[in-house]
Amino acid sequence: MKLVRYGEPGRECPGIWLDATDSAPARIVDVRAMVFDIEDYNTRFWNTFGLARLRGLLRESALKTFPAEGIRLGPPIARPSQVICLGKNYRDHAEEFDAEVPNLPIYFSKNPNSLCGTGDILFLHPDAHRVDAEVELAVVIARRARNLDENNALSVIAGYTILNDVTNRDLQQARGQWFMGKSADYFGPLGPWLVTADEIENPHGLDIFQRVNGETLQQANTSQMIFRLEQVLADLSQVMTLQPGDVVSTGTPGGIGSARKPPQMLHDGDVVECEVEGIGILRNLVNVQYI
Ligand code: MG
Fold first, then answer.
1. Last residue of a domain, one of 21, 40, 67
2. Distance, CA 85 to ligand 1 centroid (Å)?
């Protein structure tokens, strides 16, 4: 099942994406029209067996749907309480970044307000000259989780999506920490949808790509992560309670534009595509202007 949120920014409605078939284009289920008390994919949704209720809804014969074409998709979940990211979680990226491969997971926070949807414009400030895209497999937490055991940690994952962890390298290096350089408005494209966990048999065996204007910059497999999801979720939950809807992003592989020779930074008019096998393609157009 693919969860989407559609409509104007800040006023998105919950939907279920129905893939195109040989005979019909893609459609979206209007969830609110069928289940009056599912207002959004928010904390209440996760805490009230929301996914099970959506599955029940899909079994109904008279689905209320509309054509997906031309519909804006926002981030596939309501604003999370936190977006936790991993730094340097692929060896080749750690080596291209500063050559130090971590012994323990490196975490940082990304401003949840930076999230936007597939198809949204990625606005860059005219003074931001060294901005990278980073393709990442991200998970959404289904329930409150504390002191998870590695053996059952994956059971708290509601589903999988793609985060473009857009980064201003100048800010990242100048400020001595990563939060500023990662947290500008629009620096968190997330989507295109949330694929429920039952559809991803092995999250550590997925091909992962980043393309800019059709040219492949990053190409790897999630099997190459240094710290796997069960380790990461168990580790985090020893210290903090993970909340339903929280996003944990697993880091980016090697190949980022700033590490290339010559560097290949994002420019006005670029089309960035982040793809993860089994999930889909997150696509955003870069636009340089004051916002
Ligand atoms: Mg990253």
1. 67
2. 6
pLDDT of 97 reads 83
Please say if the pLDDT value at position 276 is more than 90.
Answer: yes
99 versus 84: the higher-pLDDT residue is 84
Give distance in angstroms: CA of 25 to centre of ligand 1: 34
Residues 49-64 have a mean pLDDT of 94
Could you list the residue range(s) of the whole structural domain that residue 123 is in? 83-288
Q: What separation in Å is there between the alpha carbon of 49 and the centre of ligand 1?
A: 31
pTM for this structure? 0.98
Residue 271 CA, ligand 1 centroid: distance in Å: 19
41, 176: one domain: no
pLDDT digits (tens, 9 = 90+) for 238-259: 999 999 999 999 999 999 999 9
- For the chain, the domain total comes to 2
> Do 19 and 140 fall into the same domain?
no
35 C-alpha to center of ligand 1: Å? 36
Cα of 69 vs centre of ligand 1, distance in Å, is 31
For residue 225, how far is its CA from the centre of ligand 1 (angstroms)?
12
Q: Do 11 and 119 reside in the same domain of the chain? A: no
Does residue 77 lie in a domain region? no
Are the C-beta atoms of residues 218 and 254 closer than 8 Å to each other?
yes
In terms of domains, do 172 and 41 share one? no
Q: How many angstroms separate the alpha carbon of residue 251 from the centre of ligand 1?
A: 5
